[in-house]
Design a protein that fits this description.
single chain, mainly alpha, 7 helices
Length: about 220
């Protein structure tokens, strides 16, 4: 899936999950969402044409450290665990174990650097779960494409593929999915304000709508 589609769908997914906290902790939600946006592009850094390589700001930092630092360390971790590492595009970086490993590596590297430089703030903690969530959303989104993925490799070689043609200019489903997710997220926020819904109930509603939305996305993508 194209970079802009990964960003759009992942942002919509993040906002839906974080909707109950949007008005209570807007800064935390913003930091989490920023993490999701960056995280939604990280698996594709195994390719030279990743959208992340053409972005500025904080995204540029991740572009600079992924290929020369994070991916080699991820490969080393795989070797220590005696697990084969596939460096090709949609290889090990496009798997659940890969996302877990590189997220932990990034968290340790950046967290330590910020602490040593005196820039650490507890609010930054919300960024790292966002990176992980963005990576997971990326895998789900790529499973909706014709090329598909084997997201559980090396534990399972089962491939998941849908019918989205990422090379087609008339393919409208990714944009539709993102729009629906954002509107549903907005609906959760409005409902919470209008009906004074308690936070636990609003969280439950948000989670249910998130699951329902993604089940429909997977169905519409014909996985």
């Amino acid at each position: 899936m194209r970079g802009k589609d990964h960003i759009a769908i992942s942002t919509g997914s993040a906002l839906l999950l974080a909707a109950p906290w949007l008005l209570i902790h807007p800064v935390a939600v913003a930091i989490f969402t920023a993490g999701v946006i960056i995280g939604s592009l990280l698996p594709d850094t195994d390719a030279t044409d990743s959208k992340l390589h053409y972005m500025d700001g904080i995204a540029r930092v991740f572009s600079l450290i992924m290929r020369p630092v994070v991916i080699p360390i991820t490969k080393l971790v795989y070797r220590v665990l005696e697990t084969p590492f596939n460096p090709a595009h949609r290889g090990s970086m496009h798997t659940l174990p890969g996302v877990i490993v590189y997220t932990l590596i990034i968290t340790l590297l950046i967290g330590t650097a910020l602490f040593l430089l005196g820039f650490w703030n507890i609010i930054i903690v919300f960024f790292f779960p966002g990176l992980f969530a963005g990576g997971i959303f990326h895998l789900l989104e790529d499973c909706c494409t014709r090329s598909g993925l084997m997201p559980f490799k090396p534990f399972s070689n089962r491939k998941y593929a849908g019918s989205i043609n990422t090379g087609s200019r008339i393919e409208v489903r990714p944009g539709f999915y993102a729009t629906v997710l954002i509107f549903v997220a907005a609906g959760v926020v409005v409902a919470g304000i209008t009906y004074a819904i308690s936070l636990p109930v609003l969280i439950a509603i948000s989670l249910c709508l998130f699951v329902i939305s993604w089940v429909l996305i997977l169905k519409l993508s014909r996985i």
